[in-house]
Amino acid sequence: MTVDVENLVRRFGAAAALDGVSLSLRQGEFAALLGPSGSGKTTLLRILAGLDFPDQGRVRIAGVDVASVPARDRGVGVVFQSYALFRHMSVAENVAFGLRVRPRRYRPPEAEIQRRVRELLELVQIPELAGRYPEQISGGQRQRVALARALAIEPQLLLLDEPFGALDALVRKDVRRWVRGLHERLGITSILVTHDQEEAMEMADRVAVMERGRIVQLDTPQALLEAPATAFVAGFLGEATRLPLYIERGIARLSEFGLDDIEIDLADGEAVLFLRPHEVRIEPAQASRAVVRFIRPEGTGGTRILAETGSRIIEGISHAELARGDACRIRPVSGTVFHGDGTTHRWQRQEAWAAG
């Protein structure tokens, strides 16, 4: 099922939860809506589900405009963070609920409902839990029940609203990998809402990064990290040090951070440099403003170092023997610069960086 959203606007009073959002997803794609609280991702998901309606714009699912179609008529499966299971119903009854509440003319025979419930519980690998109640099973098992219930109506679009937030860290990793595997087996178009970037980057084919009611970049996880479209995306995704600087006559002034100035082909003016850990080399120094504060070995890839210089902590990689408290030199070798005029520039130090 394809999903096409065009210029969606949703206001709550004077505040715009969505401010001209457009999005297009392919059949069978797994997408994630990623952003901080208040960025509009849950509002967008609720509109796709039919639980809320836009003030402006179009929503097409499988080519059909559904902007004014209620949730029960969309054939969309939704899984919430709270699971929303009925405590007084068994696992099997919860899974069957969406089928049994259909209008009589669309409701399958009871034998068909029971057959489908058995198949779904086998699919999510919990057939032995059919007779138990939600309070008698674990959080990870409840998540599987919620998924089975969403799949019972045979949706072509599956919406996942922060579905792993209530799980502990170890279970969360296992369940999200299982969900991604289930998506691949079924081929259902899926949309995950999350504020957890690791979750989005691991599970999704493409990630829509949202900021203040807008999608600021929709791309593959790799492209988002390697070619962020805005300073917000660069700072929000992955691990990066943000250094404000001023460019004058082709020189970016970094001396206030205890770093060497760099040559850069940009106009004079204010800019921001983002450095990811693999773009920074930390070297021993006899005397320096920079001091090693934290050390994290990373096997043959070197040692992850957090060095303090002035009021800044800069993270980088070292291939030398360093101890906490040692003086060090911080040497950026590449980075992404966002100029105040809106241009973006990938900077690379000219001399080769030897790994040794």
UniProtKB/TrEMBL annotation:
InterPro entries: AAA+_ATPase, ABC_SmlMolc_Importer, ABC_transporter-like_ATP-bd, ABC_transporter-like_CS, P-loop_NTPase, Sulph_transpt1. It comes from the Bacteria. The keyword Translocase applies. Transmembrane segments: none annotated. Coiled coil: none annotated. Keywords: ATP-binding, Nucleotide-binding, Sulfate transport, Translocase, Transport. Residues 3-237 form the ABC transporter domain. It holds the Pfam family ABC_tran. One of its GO terms (molecular function) is ATP binding. This is Sulfate ABC transporter ATP-binding protein. It comes from Roseococcus pinisoli.
